[in-house]
Design brief:
UPF0145 protein Psyc_1853, UPF0145_dom_sf, UPF0145_YbjQ-like, alpha+beta, 158 residues, 4 strands, 2 helices
């Protein structure tokens, strides 16, 4: 099985059975002087710096490959929580670092989805939205007078 990669903390449709260790891969690259001069000219007129794009793509792949070798050595099925980091090492040289957690994982069993043909009981009272509901004994009437002798404030002046 090839090592699967996920930037999530889990692997979709898999159950993580064991966390093995943190694994990483890195590469340090420097710019090519000739490509750097061309990139400097391109920077003046604008546009994509394809030499740098290619350099970064190669660096990412090399760092990932090195991390996968370490994960395979641990017997991992996947690496989760995948992250990238970069740092400047020296003038014109940068490190690309990738890391994650090597795990053992097994596919989850797909549970069949059952749909019930029974509908939940309706709570419809039989009244339309325009009819005034009939108060029941369980519901106190809003028009009932208070039984105490305290004065009541009525904002409508009634």
């Amino acid at each position: 099985m090839t090592v699967q990669l996920s930037n999530l903390e889990h692997l979709p449709n898999y159950q993580i059975t064991e966390r093995l260790d943190v694994v990483y891969g890195s590469t340090v690259r420097s710019k090519h002087v000739g490509k750097d001069l061309f990139a400097g000219l391109k920077n003046i007129v604008g546009g994509e710096l394809t030499a740098y794009t290619e350099l970064l793509e190669e660096s990412r792949q090399e760092a990932i490959d090195r991390m996968i070798v370490k994960a395979e050595a641990l017997g991992a099925d996947a690496v989760v929580g995948l992250r990238f980091s970069t740092s400047s090492i020296a003038q014109g040289a940068s490190e690309l670092f990738v890391y994650g957690t090597a795990v053992k994982a097994v596919p989850m069993q797909q549970q069949p989805i059952y749909q019930s043909s029974n509908q939940p009981p309706s709570h419809h009272s039989g009244h339309s939205q325009y009819e005034e509901p009939v108060p029941s004994a369980a519901q106190p009437s809003t028009t009932a007078q208070a039984n105490d002798d305290l004065p009541r404030f009525n904002p409508f002046g009634e």
